[in-house]
Specification:
This protein is an alpha/beta fold and about 375 residues long. It has 18 helices and 13 strands.
Length: about 375
C-alpha cells in the first residue's frame, strides 16, 4: 500500500489537508497517511509524526519571535520524514516553513499543493520550487500559467474552498441559540490568528460602533479556533459591547448574516461563495506593515479582488477613512441597492471560476494516479 505524507501548518492549510486525507481514505481505505497539521487533520485519523508547536504567524516580527521553535520543528520534521520514507510528500501552503523543509529532503518525492504566491512577492522562490519539487497544484487559474512559464509542471482542479462550502452542516443549534425573529445579523470574521485578533478585531469593533448608531443590526463574532475565544472575549468586554461570540462553523454564521465585516483572507472566498455581501479589513503593526509595503507587490489584499483583478469588495487597510466606510456599509446594507446587487453578481461568477464540486476528490485521485 502507498504511504503519503501531508505537511500543513496554518488553519486554512490544515482544513485543505484534512479534506485531502479523507478523499485518500475514501479511494483507498487501507492507504497509510502520515504528516503534520492541526486539529482538522488530526481528526481524520492520520498518523501524526511530529506535533506542530508553532502558532500561525502574522508578519515578520512574529516569525522572528518564534524562530528557535521554528528551527527545532524543522529539524524534527526532516528527521521523521527521512526515517518514514513516504512514497510522496504533499506540501500544503505555509511557504515559509515548507520551502525550507523541501530543500533538506532532496531524495524524497515532493509535490507542492497551494504553492507560494510568487506573483505577489519574492518571485525568486519559484526557482527553489523548480529545483526541489516535482510539480505544483495551484488554487487560482492564473497561477498555473506563471509556473508553467518557468518550466514547472502545474495543475489546476479548482479551489478547495468549494469543498468547504459544500460540506453539509446542521445550523439548528445556531438558529435556536443566536437567531431571534426579525434579527438582522452582521457577521464579524476577524481571522484565525492571535495577531489578527489583536490588530483587526478592534478595527471591526470600531466599525460596528459607527454602524450601531444608524442601523438596527445584531453583531455576532466568529471564533475560528477555541484558543482565540479568550482574546476575543477580552477585546469585546473592554469595549463594553453586547456582541455575542460563535464558536461553531463560520459557515453557519455566514449563512444567517445579512452582511459581513471580515479580515482579509480565505474567509472572503467562503463568504463570496455563500453569497454574503462583505467589507474587508486589514491591519498589522506599523513595523510589519512598513516591511509588507516594501516587499508585497499587490494592488489588493482580498483574494476575491485578486482573482478578478479589480475591486469587487471594498478594502480598508491600516488607516481607515470612516466616512467612506459608512457610505459603503449603507449601500451594501440596502437589500435592493445597486452596490449589493453588483457584488452578488460577481460572487456568482466566482463560483464558475473556482469550480463547482469535488475539487479535493479530483486532486486526491490525481496524486494517487501519479504513484502508479
Amino acid at each position: 500500500m502507498p504511504k503519503i505524507a501531508l505537511i500543513s501548518g496554518e488553519i486554512s492549510g490544515d482544513q485543505y489537508a484534512s479534506l485531502l486525507a479523507l478523499q485518500f481514505k475514501r479511494i483507498i481505505p487501507s492507504i497509510e497517511i502520515i504528516g503534520t497539521g492541526g486539529t482538522k487533520l488530526k481528526k481524520t485519523g492520520i498518523r501524526i509524526i511530529v506535533e506542530n508547536p508553532l502558532p500561525g504567524t502574522f508578519g515578520i516580527s512574529s516569525v522572528l519571535k518564534n524562530l528557535p521553535q521554528h528551527l527545532k520543528y524543522l529539524k524534527r520534521c526532516a528527521s521523521a520524514l527521512k526515517e518514514e520514507k513516504p512514497d510522496m510528500i504533499v506540501f500544503i501552503d505555509n511557504p515559509g516553513f515548507n520551502l525550507q523543509l523541501g530543500k533538506i529532503l532532496p531524495d524524497l518525492r515532493k509535490i507542492y499543493y497551494i504553492p507560494p504566491k510568487i506573483w505577489a512577492h519574492d518571485y525568486q522562490r519559484i526557482f527553489l520550487i523548480r529545483h526541489f519539487f516535482e510539480s505544483v497544484i495551484t488554487i487560482f487559474p492564473f497561477e498555473k500559467l506563471i509556473y508553467e512559464k518557468e518550466g514547472i509542471p502545474a495543475f489546476y482542479f479548482g479551489h478547495p474552498v468549494i469543498d468547504l462550502i459544500n460540506e453539509q452542516e446542521s445550523d439548528e443549534f445556531f438558529k435556536k441559540t443566536f437567531v431571534k425573529e426579525k434579527d438582522v445579523i452582521s457577521g464579524v470574521f476577524p481571522g484565525s490568528r492571535k495577531e489578527e485578533i489583536k490588530y483587526i478585531l478592534p478595527l471591526l469593533i470600531e466599525a460596528g460602533k459607527l454602524i450601531q448608531k444608524k442601523f438596527k443590526t445584531k453583531f455576532i463574532v466568529s471564533c475560528a479556533e477555541e484558543s482565540l475565544y479568550t482574546n476575543i472575549k477580552e477585546i469585546i468586554e473592554k469595549n463594553a459591547l453586547d456582541w455575542e461570540i460563535w464558536t461553531g462553523s463560520a459557515h453557519n454564521l455566514a449563512r444567517h448574516s445579512h452582511i459581513a465585516l471580515a479580515a482579509s483572507g480565505t474567509m472572503n472566498l467562503e463568504l463570496a461563495l455563500l453569497g454574503i455581501p462583505m467589507i474587508v479589513f486589514y491591519r498589522m503593526s506599523r513595523f510589519n506593515y512598513s516591511i509588507a509595503k516594501f516587499v508585497v507587490q499587490l494592488r489588493y489584499v482580498s483574494p476575491v479582488n485578486l482573482i478578478f483583478g479589480k475591486y469587487i469588495v471594498d478594502e480598508f487597510i491600516q488607516k481607515i477613512n470612516w466616512y467612506k466606510f459608512q457610505k459603503v456599509f449603507s449601500a451594501l446594507f440596502d437589500s435592493s441597492g445597486e452596490k449589493r446587487k453588483r457584488q452578488l453578481e460577481s460572487f456568482a461568477k466566482l463560483r464558475e471560476i473556482l469550480g463547482y464540486e469535488k475539487v479535493s476528490e479530483k486532486i486526491a485521485q490525481f496524486l494517487l494516479d501519479r504513484l502508479k
